[in-house]
Amino acid sequence: MVFLEIIVVLGAIFFGIRMGGIGIGLCGGLGLAILTIGFGLPIGSPPVDVILIIMTVVVAASALQAAGGMDYLVRLAGTFMRKNPKYINIIAPITTWVMTIMAGTGFIVFSMLPVIAEIAKDSGVRPSRTLAGSVVASQIAISGSPISAAMAAMLTIMEGNGVTFITVMSVCLPASFVAAMVAAFIASRQGCELEDDEVYLDRLQKGLIHKYEEKKGESTPKEKFSVILFIIATIGIVILAAFPQLRPGFDIGKPMGTRDIIIICMLSAACLMVVFCKTSPNSIVLASTFRSGMSSLAVILGIVTLGTTFVDAHMVQIKEIAGNVLSSYPILLSLVLFFTCALLYSQGATTPLIIPLAIALDVPTWAILASFVAVTGVFVLPTYPTSLAAMEFDSTGSTRVGKYILNHPFMLPGLGGIIAGVAFGFIIAPMVV
């Protein structure tokens, strides 16, 4: 029976990936029906806290986009990078990392990619180096952003096990930065020089190299104010999460939880953007950030509940098989996080599925924090949205997939960055926890 249940779980994931997008969540729901109604397994706990946090962060980020705040940030970043074109291979990844940390989603870099490609090309730098480093840095930043879906899940789970916000961020944020910078360095050494690239020379001869026309325009007060509101909300979350004594207390003596802090701050910021930035509520719903974010909720609800249903039903056997191994070799948790993320194609879905399992298997807290940067396996296949966008915006053709699919420009920077980030985490985490 267990073998059939495993087939159902893996089959749901496989067919969901084939469907793409929200399909993996829908297939997770079908698999859940088979496990519960068909095989009689008790249903696992859906990740309600994670879903609520993601929903409110998506609403706030969508309001920021609808108010023009994201475009304003992209223009600022583009201006900064154009002033320092010689160091574009380092400045661009740092910029995408910082912007993702602030926004909680790597999709904020979409509008930056054509600007990055153009600056690199104009500077004689192979665009694939800059684009690969920037894309991977934005993906890795998810493991360090206090308002990303993955980190929100991590904070909620760890807080329930007595680990504070400061402890989590003290390990995960610097590990994320180290991983991103190592990835950027490796990317800057990839491939031949642009003038020696046969694909580029062929496209140049055929007149296929086009110049990206950057949108011009003055920044409006409402764009700037929307960014200020979003930053204030983020800072408010960090301060209240870091210092529990500042949170409201209740009759039972327990302060407000991190989940509620994030929900309140993000919804308040979104509301203030609508009021003071004259943002239409309908434009928030129509924003691309809203559509992609809300579809991810279905993915998380379906696939995570499917996974927890199977795991909870067989926790005794899983502990017997994997408990001693992970307790003796906790670094293996990083491999579990990495390959699960590569399979599910979602950092937000991987975290609430694997981290509770690691806690149940008695993996040390410090090892969980040290391994968390590995929840970045989305670059393994070159079909992640930001990876596809980078290849599309590079008119030189230098950012391309090789003959064997996996030999693409995001692979080595991603692997190198994660190895460095995990190594750094395992050095610093025992000193912090």
Plain-language structure description:
It is a single chain. With 433 residues, this protein is an all-alpha fold. The radius of gyration is 22 Å and the shape is globular. This is C4-dicarboxylate transporter.
Record the SSE blueprint.
Elements: H1 2-19, H2 23-38, H3 48-66, H4 69-82, H5 88-103, H6 113-122, H7 127-141, H8 149-159, H9 165-187, H10 198-205, H11 221-242, H12 258-276, H13 281-286, H14 288-313, H15 315-328, H16 332-344, H17 347-360, H18 365-371, H19 385-393, H20 411-432
Overall 3D form: globular
Termini Cα gap: 41 Å
Largest sheet: none
> Whole-number radius of gyration?
22 Å
User: What share of the residues lie within helices?
Assistant: 55-70%
Keywords: Cell inner membrane, Cell membrane, Membrane, Transmembrane, Transmembrane helix, Transport
Transmembrane segments: 6-35, 47-67, 87-110, 163-187, 225-244, 256-276, 297-316, 328-345, 357-381, 410-432
Subcellular location: Cell inner membrane
GO molecular function, one term: C4-dicarboxylate transmembrane transporter activity
Short description:
It comes from Providencia rustigianii. Responsible for the transport of C4-dicarboxylates. This protein is mostly helical.
